[in-house]
Design brief:
Elements (H helix, E strand, L loop, with lengths): L1 H15 L14 E5 L8 E6 L5 E6 L2 E6 L3 E6 L9 H88 L2
Antiparallel strand pairs: 1-2, 3-4, 4-5
Length: about 180
Amino acid sequence: MKKFFFIILIPFILFSSTTYSKTMYVTDTLYIMARSQPGVDFKIVDQLSSNERVNLLRTEESWAQISFKDNKTGWVLERFLAEETPKSIQIAELKETLNAQAEKIAALEKENITLKQSKAEMAELISSLKIENQSLKEAPYRIMLLLAGVGIFLFGCIITLILQRTGQKKRSRLSF
């Protein structure tokens, strides 16, 4: 009985502890306080979020005086400032560039299709022009052959007439 109970209990134990899992990310948004003077005890002038552009005016120990939003000034901890453009702004700019490049690629693909069609039409036209050119090249030879044939025929006719006349003169001399 214990074995039977144990066999039934094992699947419940194994499959009863299903856990709910969802992928999440830690936000990179940071809010810092701009203060009226360098120090955490002074009045907060404004709140600045990540990626906000500020102008560094001067530094004092670990604090930096900045100007921001409509020429407001304040003090923030210098460690929260960076000279390089934030990655999120770089990513947004790269996405815009990527979209522009994708549009250019689509336009170039359409142009490529059009050019391929034009190329096929040109190839067909060139082929027909080659055939026409060949026939035009052969036309003078045909005329020359025709004229040569006519000339040979006329030459043969003239020779035949001459031979017939000479043959008649010989017969007429023999007939006396």
